[in-house]
Amino acid sequence: MGFGYGLSEAVTVSTGRRQREHRGGGPGGGGGGGGHAVGRPVAVVTIEPEGVTVQPVLDRTKIVLTALTAAGAMGMMMLRRRARRI
Q1: Low pLDDT (below 70) residues in the chain
Q2: For residues 43 and 57, is the Cβ–Cβ distance under 8 A?
Q3: Around Cβ 70, how many Cβ atoms within 10 Å?
Q4: Which residues constitute the domain of residue 13?
């Protein structure tokens, strides 16, 4: 995803009675921006003449990190409970 824009300085040229606006050739400006997205697969969908199958994609790293985070949170909670008892 992204966007951009450009600006050209307008110069007014006077020739006798007529005035006209001339764009381009002069200094201008502009800018732009963009975005970034990341996705992970959650399932594999297979379509065959016999039917459709959906197989989940297991991310072992994510499961292990979640388990470690939960264990750490439970450990901190238990330490706080022990500290209150003393």
Answers
A1: 1, 7-29, 86
A2: yes
A3: 10
A4: 2-34
